[in-house]
Amino acid sequence: MAVLWSLKKKLKKNEDGYKLPTAHSKLSPKGRKSSLFSRSSHRKLGPWVLLLAVGALFWYMSSKAFDGGKEVIKKVAPPTKVDVLEDEAYYDFDFEDIDPQIVEKFDEGVQHYLITQFGDDVLTPEDGEIFEKEQQMLLASTVEKYDLSVFSGSSQGAENGEHVLLCVPLRDAEKVLPLMFKHLMNLTYPHELIDLAFLVSDCSEGDRTLDALISYSRQLQNGTLSQVFAEMDQATAEQVNKGNEKLYLKYMSPDYLKTVEQAFSPPFHENYDKPFRSVQVFQKDFGQMIGQGFSDRHAVKVQGIRRKFMGRARNWLTANALKPYHSWVYWRDADVELCPGSVIEDLMSKGYDVVVPNVWRPLPEFLSGEQPYDLNSWMESTEALQLAQNLDEDDVIVEGYAEYPTYRVHLAYIRDPTQDPNNIVDLDGVGGVSILAKAELFRRGIQFPAFTFENHAETEAFGKMARKMGYRVGGLPHYTLWHIYEPSDDDLREIANKERENRRG
Ligand SMILES: Nc1nc2c(ncn2[C@@H]2O[C@H](COP(=O)(O)OP(=O)(O)OP(=O)(O)O)[C@@H](O)[C@H]2O)c(=O)[nH]1
Ligand SMILES: *[C@@H]1O[C@H](CO)[C@@H](O)[C@H](O)[C@H]1NC(C)=O
Ligand SMILES: *[C@@H]1O[C@H](CO)[C@@H](O)[C@H](O)[C@H]1NC(C)=O
Ligand SMILES: [Mg+2]
Questions:
Q1: Rounded CA separation 275/419 (Å)
Q2: Nearest C-alpha to atom 9 of ligand 2 is from which residue?
Q3: What is the mean pLDDT of residues 383-388?
Q4: CA–CA dist 8, 475 (Å, integer)
Q5: Which ligand sits nearest to residue 275's alpha carbon?
Q6: Which residue's alpha carbon is at the smallest distance from atom 29 of ligand 1?
Q7: How many CA atoms lie within 13 A of 54 on its CB side?
Q8: Cys-Cys with 153: which of 55, 327, 348, 350 at CB 3.0–4.6 Å?
Q9: Residue 447 and residue 315 in contact, taking contact as beta carbons nearer than 8 Å
Q10: Ligand 2, atom nearest to 15 Cα
């Protein structure tokens, strides 16, 4: 790990001009002194500085009345307090880019019209014509027109040049970012048709998801990210040889591990390094309190709350990143280990409005080697509908817990790896690991409920809502993505036991 760290640090240092977006912010005053107002580092200083500044201003004004002249300014400039006010950059900041000559240039040719309530009447026909023409010019330069029926999405999106918005929610995800980016590069859907939108929320203190994300994104768009990973992986490999390998890997199926190794090894498809159409990174907290550790986030009681926070985050991301020219929205979790590079085309080709693949995960061999993972993709059952009738309006049913016997058909459980991966079944609820949906759904108001909708929240409620609004929602039972395996506390104990036994025996 030490090598990896130093390598990462080196990479960062070498990045010429790399700055976090906050440093570029037009709204934040420049310079060291500006931090007096920043909330994180000097929370209590801000009001004091303001108070002192106001005091200083009074002193200045009252003394000016008597003395007059520049002398006074020096007098009221004792070390710390007026420091801030003296920083010219602070005041000039918003205006410093404005060059009066340039502004003047754009004033030329501007025409102002004052139109009365019955404007047409006061214009002569000639004036009216000019007005029409000028107004069209003005509109053309400030208003964009889209015929949304052109962006409704077809099953041959790549051939038809359809734009995809690819959304990824992230929380405490620093360590899975390389994995995620490798998967993004592995996508064969034309990169130039994909806008990436990341939302980083509610990360723990000290987590560096945002920094790392921006760093990797810059390399991605420069076409150099795969080189960076190659170097990082080499450093990791050297570490592994020194015996620092993750212990649980010893207990995983060798076949699975081999598949993974191959999946991440070259040759990659020819446009692997091609930059994406755009990358946007958003950071916004929603107050998610539930821990991101495996055991934390899987307790039944916290599911409803957790899912509603996720719903808010997803909705916020769509609202801010979706553009009229997007035909499709693809939602993808960062913690996927294996996924066909053609996943977008594959999901698109089915002629459905919402499509999800199957999601399984590998397990240690002593735990059967693999497991149906995402239970949120399902077909509704009469049992679950009855169960819902006896629940409180705000209760959220969660799958995979004894508390809620739903007897639904889960996409995860009807998988047969020998069957046609193109088979599709209709679903009611969908899981969020990998959802392809027509952008039209979001434009029509379908969302990831951050409240209880038909006793569900977030992605499952999204599926239900889409169905209710007449859209086709489907899942591919034999087309599988593999979620990463994170050992639970129990699994780790079991592995430790086995290790002890091995040492004894
Ligand atoms: N923005 C945001 N992202 C989150 C939040 N919680 C999880 N994520 C991200 O959402 C994706 C899915 O998160 P997971 O923790 O795996 O949740 P999940 O897939 O619902 O649950 P699992 O079945 O445990 O995998 C990952 O990319 C996470 O980094 C959150 O509160 N806010
Ligand atoms: C972008 O890529 C070029 C090579 O293609 C490289 O020389 C340059 O350093 C890269 N820029 C960054 C910021 O990494
Ligand atoms: C990348 O895509 C190829 C082709 O679909 C696939 O075989 C491979 O498993 C993918 N890589 C990963 C890491 O899933
Ligand atoms: Mg997950």
A1: 35
A2: 15
A3: 96
A4: 39
A5: 2
A6: 170
A7: 5
A8: 327
A9: yes
A10: 13
